[in-house]
Give the backbone structure.
Amino acid sequence: MPGLNSLKKSIWVYHVACSPCNNCDIEILDLLTPRFDAERFGIVLVGSVRHADALLVTGSVNRQIKPRLQQLYLQAPKPCVVFAIGSCAINGNFFRKSYNIVGPVERVIKEVDPNPIIVYVPGCPPKPEAMISGVVKAIGYLDNLKKAKA
Amino acid sequence: MAALYYLIFPGFLFAAVAGLLTAWFDRKVTARVQWRQGPPILQNFYDVGKLLVKEVTIPESAHPAVFLMAPAVALSAASLAAAMLGVVNMNWDYTFVGDLIVLWYILSIPSIMIIVGASASGNPLASVGASREMNQLIGYELPMVIALATVIFKVGSINLGEILRYQAEHGPILYSVSGVIACIVALISIQAKLGLVPFDIPEAETELGAGVFMEYSGAALGAFKLTKAILLYTAPIFLITLFWGGVHIKGLGILWAILKYLLFVVLITLIRNTNPRLRIDQSVKFFWCSLTILALIGLLLMFLGY
């Protein structure tokens, strides 16, 4: 993928709230405040999924939101990275046995795309520092991917 | 030669590089106003470079040809405006009758192409954005044209070259009461033309997502970003040409030119950082009532000789 080099330096994120309890979303908003200043790394919040390079998915995915999440993933222009933020997005947390939960973000995305790039940021909620660390790891992964292709 | 002017020096390539650097300057000043570090100097180049290699999605509801044509036409029109201004500033004889009016028409092509592209995308939010852009275009044209008329009547010519020559002989138009008023009116109208806060109503990201740019992705969005950057470079040069004696690229004149240019960019950035977004009705009312009256007062003062 030729765009990976610039993609590392300019990550436009789109916020997908899949029925979260709002804690992770508040932490994401904290990440975008002047205190952490994510724009230093070219990270900008965008309003349309067509502009997105990364989807920040929070919350345990339930039946109502599942088709929307899949559609949003398909609408995002590739290459695109999915960030599963918080325990709920990673494994469902304590909602995992609930009747309306269809599974973690990974399973839902893999139904429409077998080879997605998914980054996990654990925590309930994760700190903004943890999310920055997740972005750094994603960039490292993209680097490895490029070396493997070369 | 004309192709060279259009594609390389005052035109597309130079304007794109200068525009992207200006867009960085704008973001950096914004960051410092908000007490942050801000992005690195090449950030806007990374952004456009990334967009060029991303996937371009054409929505099912869109008209593909018009949808993809709009950003290309907008980009070429913005480059043409930059080239015209650059050439006339390099040599005052490279002018023709009415090029000021032609330039003002060319500068409105990007806005019209944004409306066309947004309407062709078939997205309801984009069409709301397009209707707002249209209202806004009608709103700011009136005071801006009166501000242009102030300059035209003072100089007695509709040639950019004549305007520059008049200012070289009689001093810049800005150094008079009517000139200051016309410049303020033009600056605020330019703010709306660039689609910056408080007039970013068509792309209001909190209500409309990305508004008019909703369905654009990849290279098409990149072309629109580049158009915006070139307009951000062209607009201050346009103001300097009309009101502040133009740009001289000989000797120390270039430093003075860069200072004038950066002053206008900082003014635009500070207006955008200190004002909340208006509603579309407030915006049109502001342009048609307050600003038009101010522009008419400026015109009247010019006829009285101030």
Summary: The interface with chain B takes residues 1-3, 6-7, 9-10, 34, 37, 39-40, 42, 46-48, 50-51, 53, 75, 77-79 of chain A (CB under 8 Å).
